[in-house]
Amino acid sequence: MDVLHDSRTNCFSVLVEMRTRDYLELIRDAHAKRGIISGQRDVLKTTTAKRIRDRMVSDIRQGAVLPPVVLGAVVGEDLAIRLGEWPLPDNDAFVEKIARGEVSIIDGMQRTAALFAASEIDQAILVRPMRVEFWVARAVRSLIYRMLVLNTGQVPWTLARQLSVVYAPLLVEIEKNVPAIQRLFTPDKPGRRTGGGEFSSDALVELYLAFSLRKTNVDSKESLSEEFSRLDFVENLANPRFQEYFYAALTALGELDLSFDRYSDATKARFSRGRDIFGSQPARIGFIVAIAQYVIGRPGLDRSGEESELRIDTVRRGIRMLTDRLNGLSEPALGEFLKTDVLSEYLDRRVGQVGRYERSIFYEAFKVLIEEKFSVENMEPCWRAN
Length: 386
Description:
single chain, alpha/beta, two-stranded parallel ribbon, 17 helices, about 10% strand, elongated
């Protein structure tokens, strides 16, 4: 087992040799889920791609050695420490520990599909050795940073697609660090939002993207040819406190959502329930971006680390004060605070590009809430800010 330490991101590049059978068993679930994440590049299905893959299958059966497949994994502190010390764990012990967590296919989707196809035709292939490179990190932030930098200059991927490389471990970290999230819906475990603190995995990844870029209008399908977006994203990930800021912002969102959820009325209006406010992605993005710009600064005008620390603490205290106040209100009083009738009037205007307009409304609203240190009599001045 060959181990190199990446001191820039505190990742390990681990090159191992393993039997093809062991590799396919290790990543079977990841491959079935397209590398664990919706949006990650799937096995190509064009005519030329199929012909190339058929050729690859034929070559594998004739004994061809493929370039190493690259997998990503976020591991516990115990394994990370062992990788940095001597003697190193052996191949079997290392792979066994990796298999307990989430493994993502970073590079090698087509080769993996060819290996599955070739082994179904000739099972002797399963006992052949192959090389696998693992990018092993203690935290998902390091892995995302490493992958974005490595992908520079390759075929352009969207930011969302590159995030998909470590989508699963990101969600694991969110669930661990943001207790205000009560339920998380995924493509494998779909569901319908029935209360505050419930969000889809795709929505959270988009919030992660919006928080980093500090923009409300982020096209998740946009090509990374916009180098400034890539640069902003990579520079934020280089900040070791960035992930903490995001989790704090997401916690604030979840706690406010739970407080709003206590209100409901008998009408069938768009915002007849408090949870309907953050039931829309424009509201969530407006809130997250307002906090991101307040804490980190506008794109290209970053705040110092000391100032960001003070500002994220201000957000934490303000949200705690506001939610304590809201949780002490009666349901009618909470409805008077939310002023959802005013919000509805502003959102019901006939405008072009509805999504962009709504994100702008919510961004300006929550920007006012933050500027007023979360101490407003009710939400009307926020909803009328735009």
